[in-house]
Design brief:
Helix content is 53%, strand content 12%. It is of the alpha+beta class. The protein has a three-stranded antiparallel β-sheet, covered by helices on one side. A three-stranded antiparallel β-sheet has the order 4-5-8. It has a two-stranded antiparallel ribbon with strand order 6-7. Helix 4 runs antiparallel to helix 5 and helix 7 crosses helix 11.
């Protein structure tokens, strides 16, 4: 078997004959690049030649991207939460396969990535297009890892960029007004909304809280699970990241709110008897059944209209909590831990608008102190 190495830019590559195409009779070659040194390329080339001579190397068969994407998801699914796996499946089915699934993995080039990127931007908002494109890159990276192709042609196309969503929050006065209106109409939803706003926990985390998650004496909430919605239905499951597992400090006011809801649940349990579906949940339906997270969005929107409050999403109660803490001068690391962010950088990047607003105060403080010196 013949082969050679050569330098491409700052990296080295090898090319080797792997036989003839049985149909066309033309010479077939395998090329692999990305080696840091000539010695690394030569070592890899010699190993491949050895495998070829012994008949151990099997040429990768050509496969359509659509088939490869589905196989990739099957092998990768166990690493994903059910909700994430369903999102990947939908994006493969609705966008990746219809647009580029008919191409052979080995035939994909940067020109295909550029065209794919443009079609996504024509049909989807930038954030969704970015997610579809990112999944595509994951799939093709898997083909690189399996040595079906030498490099990912989708890596260097930057037409699809994730547009950072502007964080929309309420002031203390706006939050107080909203909660007062809700309390006058429905105490159950008041308790849900005030707990979300006063802790910054996620919607799924809120609906997964049980009595055992509350340390009534130390005034802490343990965040250890989350409610999610999938094709299988509504279910309790694990949290998305290790940093999401945390304890959130609460005050006496919130302790009283949670106790009120537990008492209400106990009353319904006595009333319904065996018909009560007791999962120890705090925020659940009157019969104890787990609450569907998406249903809160509609209810939250209805009370926003009723109160005349500025429109935000339910998730923005979390942003409101964080922004108001930062405005009060709470250390960003504490805010980050409270939210369950994996790093303080995420917190600072997400709430950079608060940082900018506070800079004027910092400038005034510095200037006054410096001029006294």
């Amino acid at each position: 078997m013949k082969g050679y190495v050569r330098k491409r830019g700052i990296k080295w590559s090898y090319t080797v004959d792997v036989g003839k195409d049985p149909i066309t009779g033309t010479r077939k070659q395998k090329t692999k690049s990305g080696f840091k040194t000539k010695k690394e390329a030569e070592s890899a080339l010699n190993q491949l030649i050895y495998e070829l001579n012994k008949g151990e190397w099997i040429a990768p068969k050509e496969i359509l991207l659509g088939e490869f994407a589905e196989e990739w998801l099957k092998s990768y699914r166990h690493q994903l939460r059910d909700t994430t796996a369903e999102q990947y499946e939908n994006k493969i089915k609705n966008w990746i396969n219809p647009l580029i699934g008919m191409y052979k993995v080995q035939d994909l080039k940067p020109i295909h990535a550029q065209a794919f990127s443009g079609k996504l931007l024509e049909s989807l908002n930038e954030n969704t297009a970015h997610k579809v494109y990112s999944i595509t890159k994951l799939i093709i990276n898997h083909a690189v890892n399996l040595e079906l192709i030498n490099k990912n042609p989708f890596n260097n196309i930057s037409l699809v960029r994730e547009k950072k969503r502007k964080v929309v929050t309420w002031s203390f006065d706006e939050l107080e007004h909203f909660l007062k209106v809700v309390k006058n109409h429905h105490t159950f939803y008041y308790r849900i909304f005030v707990t979300a706003a006063y802790t910054g926990i996620r919607k799924g985390e809120l609906l997964a809280l049980t009595k055992d998650d509350i340390d009534w004496e130390k005034k802490r909430i343990k965040i250890a699970k989350s409610v999610s919605e999938t094709k299988k239905g509504v279910q309790l499951g694990e949290l998305k990241t290790p940093s999401s597992y945390r304890n959130v400090a609460i005050d006496e006011f919130l302790i009283s709110i949670l106790k009120e809801q537990v008492i209400k649940n106990n009353e319904m349990k006595l009333k319904l008897g065996d018909s009560y579906n007791d999962q120890q949940l705090i925020f659940c339906h009157e019969d104890g059944v787990i609450f569907r997270p998406s249903s809160l969005n509609r209810i939250f929107g209805r009370y926003i209209e009723r109160s005349g409050s500025p429109k935000i999403r339910f998730h923005d109660l979390r942003h409101t909590h964080a922004s108001l803490l930062l405005e009060l001068g709470v250390n960003p690391k504490i805010v980050s831990d409270r939210l369950g962010h994996s790093s303080i950088k995420i917190t600072l990047d997400t709430y950079s608008h608060v940082s900018l607003d506070l800079q004027s105060d910092v400038a005034d403080v510095f200037s006054k102190r410096a001029r006294k010196a």
